[in-house]
Write a structure and sequence with these properties.
The protein is mainly alpha-helical. The protein contains six helices and no strands. The chain has helices at residues 8-26, 31-46, 50-68, 73-93, 110-132, 137-151.
Amino acid sequence: MFRTVGDEKVAIQLLRAALDIQEKVHGPSHPAVGYMLSEIAQLYDLAGQAQASLPLYDRALIILEKALGPRHLDVATILGQWGGALQTAGNLELPSTAPNPATDPSQYSAEIRSLYEKSADLYQRARAIREGHGESDAALYYLLLGEAQAYLY
């Protein structure tokens, strides 16, 4: 949805204003608020600000799990997006001369390893939900890739 936006700052301001309206109209725990939080988080992630997206995904997940149930496909989508954002945030923290994680994972800080461990957990949860709904192999493919990448770190 936001891949062609030329000015992410303006887009983020507009979505934050829309979020304020959703919260006033529906309350802070309404699914519409959860979906809007997810949209804003995606925009931050696409704008190269993955760290800013993480608390938004966290809040969106809490709202949507409570409203829709922990096995809902939209919950799986948020889990997968959050897992990807965690990996992006971890990559942003890596020095340009970082060692190969497969040969020397001890060179990574505990914080970076923690991001990737949480990412793997989120991908596993998303995959379990999607498998429970009988999703196709194509739908599971990207979750498996993300989960595999998380285990490299």
